[in-house]
Design brief:
- The protein is an alpha+beta fold and 137 residues long.
- It is built from seven helices and six strands.
- The strands form two sheets. Strands 1-3-4-2 form a four-stranded mixed β-sheet.
- A hairpin with a 5-residue loop joins strand 3 and strand 4.
- The N and C termini lie far apart (38 Å).
Length: 137
């Protein structure tokens, strides 16, 4: 099997932009969409989703059954949540891998309040990015 970049040590080496979903994170992330469902919501071919994952513009989690899922919170209707790509880039530049980035996005932060992903959905991405930038120091 061919390995592709951006894998963060996930078993199988299928595609990049994949976070291993573990039991504690399951309750954090919430519902996920299959790659096909996510592609349908975005109105793009399933192959384009894989390209977004490789480019780290979107991150998927590996479900307990081994399938990949895009957290539903990463989509806003028919679009990727505004600012997600920039925030992911900040987190990766701070040294986070995919699982750590997903965990950070879905972990409550009293200073926001709520989780970073909730703040982004409420159009408070600037606050989220400030906190992400502070992680580098």
């Amino acid at each position: 099997m061919r390995r592709l970049p951006g894998l963060a040590g996930c078993a199988g080496g299928n595609i990049g932009g994949v976070a291993q979903k573990n039991p504690p994170a399951d309750s954090l992330v919430g519902p996920c969409l299959s790659l096909t469902e996510a592609a349908g919501r975005l109105g793009i071919p399933p192959g384009r989703i894989k390209q977004l994952l490789r480019d780290r513009k979107l991150v998927a989690v590996r479900q307990a059954d081994g399938t990949l899922g895009v957290p539903a919170a990463f989509l806003d209707g028919e679009h990727i949540l505004k600012g997600l790509h920039g925030t992911l880039t900040l987190l990766f530049d701070c040294g986070f891998d995919e699982p750590e980035a997903v965990r950070w996005l879905f972990t409550a932060d009293d200073s926001l309040p709520g989780t970073p992903i909730q703040a982004m959905a409420e159009h408070r991405g600037t606050e989220v990015n400030r906190r992400a930038q502070a992680l580098a120091f």
